[in-house]
């Protein structure tokens, strides 16, 4: 009797243990499957937003009224293909060059070699200036939002801007000294047009390279306005008004930055059906992400995928902060950036993936718009 009772208890215990083991095994199997499903649903939700933004940003085009038919960006690309590299022969940081561009010294004060470089590239500057007289601003030939980083023009456009920083203000000074103030003012307007056009399409990627020529021509633009004819001043006022309208605001710049970074950081996990909806250039980015050797390991992959939601939320906060008045904007951007910080990712990446200097870029945009408005008001 006792033996039968003990045998029954042992059977119950074995059955209970078996059930517990099966439940635990089910949980062990269900947890990774459930985690994978959560990441998949999250990727689908976030990818929808990336696709919407990428399509709208890639399709942007702008028309500058009163200009000649043609695409500013396509024209600039051709000029970039033959852009000189003057970083050694005629660096804009050279003290003698800066003295001439600021109007302190005459054009003749340049070294013979420097004047020879300027003369050798007058035709090239005229080609760039002609781009500034065209009406359409739209992506073309390796330039624009999400452009392929392997395209040759990704390297040649910064070189173009650096060469323009050296040459444009010197040619403006030469024209002013020869009594051709209208020509100097025309070159000023063209420089402002081509730099703003490229920055509008490519955002923060183009901001720092365009900073050089915009600042370099500032003093010459003012002196040209003082000496130019009434007709030239009127044309310049209309032109600068169009350039100011073309100039981007901080929110649009941050929307482009958010979308570009999302493709670069998380493009490998954009579902195929959404990847097919992306613009062609954006698909090149996601293809690179999927094809690249994955060296971060399982923990790095999981950490980055979990960060996607935090990244999207934080970047949208930065974008919203960029719309605030300047007095409130910087503090709001900094607060949003603090929530974006991802120190745990430094273990798997070379550095924190976020730039975290967005308030500086917003300040530059303020300066650009203020400079354009001041020139327009002075021309009128």
TrEMBL record:
Where do transmembrane segments lie in this chain?
20-39
Query: Is Transmembrane helix tagged as a keyword?
Result: yes
Supply the alphabetized keyword list: Membrane, Transmembrane, Transmembrane helix
Full protein name: Uncharacterized protein
């Amino acid at each position: 009797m006792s033996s039968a009772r003990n045998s029954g208890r042992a059977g119950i215990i074995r059955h209970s243990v078996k059930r517990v083991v099966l439940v635990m095994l089910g949980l062990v199997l269900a947890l990774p499957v459930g985690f994978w499903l959560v990441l998949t649903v999250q990727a689908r939700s976030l990818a929808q937003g990336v696709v919407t933004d990428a399509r709208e940003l890639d399709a942007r085009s702008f028309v500058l009224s009163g200009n000649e038919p043609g695409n500013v960006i396509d024209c600039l690309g051709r000029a970039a293909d033959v852009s000189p590299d003057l970083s050694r022969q005629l660096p804009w940081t050279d003290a003698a060059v800066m003295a001439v561009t600021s109007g302190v010294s005459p054009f003749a004060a340049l070294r013979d070699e420097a004047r020879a470089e300027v003369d050798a590239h007058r035709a090239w500057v005229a080609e760039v200036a002609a781009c500034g007289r065209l009406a359409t601003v739209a992506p073309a030939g390796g330039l624009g939002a999400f452009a392929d980083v392997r395209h040759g023009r990704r390297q040649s456009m910064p070189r173009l801007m650096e060469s323009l920083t050296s040459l444009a203000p010197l040619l403006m000074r030469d024209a002013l000294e020869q009594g051709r103030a209208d020509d100097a003012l025309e070159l000023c307007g063209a420089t402002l047009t081509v730099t703003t056009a490229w920055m509008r399409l490519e955002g923060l990627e183009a901001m720092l390279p365009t900073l050089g020529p915009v600042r370099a021509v500032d003093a010459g633009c003012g002196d040209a306005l003082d000496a130019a004819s009434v007709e030239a001043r009127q044309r310049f006022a209309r032109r600068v008004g169009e350039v100011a309208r073309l100039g981007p605001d901080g929110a649009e710049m941050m929307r482009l930055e958010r979308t570009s970074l999302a493709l670069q950081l998380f493009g490998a996990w954009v579902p195929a059906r959404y990847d097919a909806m992306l613009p062609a250039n954006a698909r090149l980015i996601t293809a690179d992400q999927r094809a690249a050797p994955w060296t971060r390991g399982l923990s790095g992959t999981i950490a980055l995928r979990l960060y996607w939601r935090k990244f999207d939320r934080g970047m949208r906060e930065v974008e919203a902060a960029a719309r605030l008045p300047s007095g409130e904007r910087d503090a709001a951007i900094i607060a949003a950036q603090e929530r974006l910080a991802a120190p745990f990712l430094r273990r798997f990446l070379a550095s924190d993936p976020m730039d975290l200097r967005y308030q500086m870029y917003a300040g530059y945009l303020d300066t650009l718009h203020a400079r354009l408005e001041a020139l327009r008001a002075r021309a009128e």
